[in-house]
Design a protein that fits this description.
5 helices, rod-shaped, 238 residues, Helix Hairpins, 2 domains
Length: 238
């Protein structure tokens, strides 16, 4: 009975386990779920073996009880037959022979009473064993349901973890793109080009100013020569 109580206690403890609370407290929920699935699977196998043995013992007790019930009927029939024979012999005047069959009837009745006692004694034991078996079966069913829940939660957790990992990789890639933004490089290159264009334009403008100055000096020199020529002509007329 102590072993049965141990099995019942283990089944009850496992069936009452709060999976969500255990996961919240776990450092690595996925590994914990894997371990719990293994533990539950092993415990279910052990429980099934123990329950099978308990059921087997119950069936043996029931078979013995059935044999005792049959023996009660059998010895009752034998007692009735011996008593009837004794009455018949006594009616025929064979008292001594009749007494012998009455003694046989008494022996049969004693055997009947003995087997009735066996049946009565077995009844509460069989009832208790039946109750234990029912509880074990119910607990085993609960354990299998819990195992199914664990497997489902494990699959969901693994899927969520993989999705989160994939999302993290995407975010990391996006972060890298932000750090190495190609448009910012283009903007810097464009700024360099604009500065170079401005420098070239400045040089061109300076060159243009120099050429205009030269032409202006040439024009000024031409004007002076014309003035001198006209002055010489006036002097010649005088």
């Amino acid at each position: 009975m102590a072993e049965k109580q141990t099995i019942l206690g283990r089944i009850a403890q496992l069936a009452r386990a709060n999976v969500n609370a255990l996961l919240d407290a776990a450092e690595d929920p996925e590994k914990m779920l894997d371990q719990m699935v293994r533990d539950y699977t092993n415990n279910i196998a052990e429980a099934e073996a123990a329950i099978a043995q308990t059921i087997g013992n119950l069936r043996l007790a029931e078979a013995d009880r059935d044999e005792d019930v049959a023996a009660v009927t059998e010895w009752g029939t034998k007692a009735a037959a011996a008593s009837a024979k004794a009455d018949s012999l006594r009616a025929a005047g064979h008292s001594a022979e009749a007494d012998r069959f009455d003694e046989l009837a008494k022996v049969a009745l004693k055997r009947q009473i003995s087997f009735e006692s066996e049946v009565s004694a077995a009844a509460p034991q069989i009832a208790a064993q039946t109750e234990v078996v029912d509880k074990l079966k119910s607990g085993l069913s609960a354990m299998k349901g819990k195992l199914s829940e664990l497997k489902t939660k494990r699959d969901q957790l693994v899927a969520r973890a993989r999705a989160a990992q994939a999302q993290a990789q995407v975010q990391s890639a996006i972060g890298s793109l932000n750090v190495l933004d190609p448009t910012s490089e283009l903007a810097r290159f464009e700024d360099r080009v604009r500065r170079e264009e401005a420098r070239v334009a400045g040089q061109a403008e300076l060159q243009a100013d120099s050429i205009e100055a030269q032409f202006a000096s040439l024009e000024d020199a031409g004007t002076d020569l014309d003035v001198e020529a006209r002055l010489a002509a006036l002097k010649a007329k005088g």
